[in-house]
Amino acid sequence: MGMNAEELQAYLVAEFPQAFGAGRPHRVVRVDAAGVGVTLAASEEHLRPGDTVSGPSMMGLADIAAYAVILAAIGPVPLAVTTNFSINFLRKPQPGLLVADARLMKLGRRLAVCEVGLRAPHEGDAPFRVTGGEELCAHAVTTYSIPA
Amino acid sequence: MGMNAEELQAYLVAEFPQAFGAGRPHRVVRVDAAGVGVTLAASEEHLRPGDTVSGPSMMGLADIAAYAVILAAIGPVPLAVTTNFSINFLRKPQPGLLVADARLMKLGRRLAVCEVGLRAPHEGDAPFRVTGGEELCAHAVTTYSIPA
Amino acid sequence: MGMNAEELQAYLVAEFPQAFGAGRPHRVVRVDAAGVGVTLAASEEHLRPGDTVSGPSMMGLADIAAYAVILAAIGPVPLAVTTNFSINFLRKPQPGLLVADARLMKLGRRLAVCEVGLRAPHEGDAPFRVTGGEELCAHAVTTYSIPA
Amino acid sequence: MGMNAEELQAYLVAEFPQAFGAGRPHRVVRVDAAGVGVTLAASEEHLRPGDTVSGPSMMGLADIAAYAVILAAIGPVPLAVTTNFSINFLRKPQPGLLVADARLMKLGRRLAVCEVGLRAPHEGDAPFRVTGGEELCAHAVTTYSIPA
């Protein structure tokens, strides 16, 4: 019922071309039992003075990674909507690539609760470490309502 | 020490040209004792399937309105950063204009806490009603850290 | 379908005797179109060093006021459960009476979203002012899931 | 500068006798590089109809575990105050013992951000797994302000 990385990327390119289409900055880079990874290649439009990635760009990345982890688990649910989104900004990220690692904390019939860690990736990274708290630049928790 | 609507608009055009510059969708429409109003003229880039305004567009609008209400109160603080942002999505907004009404709940030396109500404006609106809960499409609370 | 102040107080005494029973500190003081008011008469067990009301006591009061405003609107729903609770602590309250003013921001079929303002009451208070931000000691937003 | 498990337990018994004193339900069970563990032995006063642990009891446990992980890292800071507390309730816990595993996501000069996972412990548990999301009954994120 779920989707693998290729299916998820293709679905998001079709549904969110402005985020995942050709030349656009988001990409699915991982789907596995632990969750999903989505990257943002931050460029001019995502930066704030001081060459840091803007808050709304990070919120958009976290929101889309949370949506992706639900799609990966239960397949296309186009009407799923975010009901609650909460984020703590922990450190200023450098410009460049940001990775959002999302995992499901709860997948109920009506509500899904996801945790998302945002970090600047490093060579040799382990594939999934939401708990790499020392290096997170932001941490989000989000609730999606799943249509009946 | 604070800024009025013209000063605030001019400051944001200069600091966030990608949001407030010519042809861009954000605008300061109100600064008074109750807080500030910032609008988003939602267009193609802000929409999701179903012709509703995207969550990240609403989050960006709320974040910027919270920043604006701090600027209006204490003047330019370019290094103020969002530390926490929490939003509840209540109703799907129609495409078109969105208004964010922001007010300060606390303005301390180190932290400012702001409440933001998002709504589609109606003719004859009273100038400021965060509590118009029946009509809010989203409600956000955000904390800014103010540099020493 | 809803409940007035007397019905609500009686229901809460029966369902939460440890909070609303005889000699216990919580009480329903207002039910009207704007929402509900619930008080906590803070005593020894609710205080922290410095003679301030403890955070968990304030969280408990806000949670119960949010539950009360749902009961007031739709009548007894014993299985309603909090799914999300978020609070900002704004000022240290004095020991003594605390008032929680709760209102519904959304009452859907499955989810209710409530806003709660906590304040130390003053003589001559207007009956309901969540937006009296200058005087709030805490502000909470909470989501309840309503059973089908 | 920090505190080990014995020092932390002793400090909390002295500072919060109503929570950690003799016959009271909270206890520090772990302090290590990953964070701290605090337990609540839930009894009558913490239960709700349906024999589940009450929301406020879980919030109180999470708040105190977050405070404990800060004490463990930097030693006694009696004036540290919670500024923001956000919790998602994921599953109803059984009555009995609850464990709160807290870790620091950020320890700045002015703000500390902590993540807390609440779970019912099982025999043979690994010592620390905030990410054991499948088994968490609640997940909290909290911000403490550290006095200058």
Automatic annotation (TrEMBL), chains A, B, C, D:
GO terms for molecular function: thiolester hydrolase activity. This is PaaI family thioesterase. Residues 52-121 form the Thioesterase domain. InterPro entries: HotDog_dom_sf (IPR029069), Thioestr_dom (IPR006683). Keywords: Membrane, Transmembrane, Transmembrane helix. The keyword Transmembrane helix applies. Pfam families: 4HBT. The chain crosses the membrane at residues 64-87. The keyword Ubl conjugation does not apply.
